[in-house]
Amino acid sequence: MYRNLISGLFVIVMVSISGCATNLYPGGATPSGLLISSTTATSQALSLNTDPTISPDKVGEASSAAFLGLFGFGNSSVTAAMIDGGITTVHHVDYRNMSVLSGLFLQTTTIVYGE
Q1: Which of 17, 42, 61, 110 is most buried, by the most CB atoms less than 10 A from its CB?
Q2: What is the C-alpha to C-alpha distance for residues 58 and 74, in angstroms, rounded to an integer?
Q3: Where are the domains of the chain?
């Protein structure tokens, strides 16, 4: 009994600290804490055209979340963030990722800058 408990805990810890569980995407790999993490990263690859010559005066955000890996909801698309900020031309896109208790609660926010 004790051996099975230790083996089960070992598997849970190994999965929790593996790359798949701690690197939150989109936006690329971000540092992640086991208890709580909140990081912001610039998108590495986009399937839309950006214009670095414009001024990023407007900001729009769109979020999605998941609980226990069982329930997920929201719209964190670039399009939803553009609508939120009234943006027609994109300067750049950031992503904010938050994790509580190594995935018990996850939230991704897409942040679009443009005019």
Answers
A1: 110
A2: 22
A3: 2-114
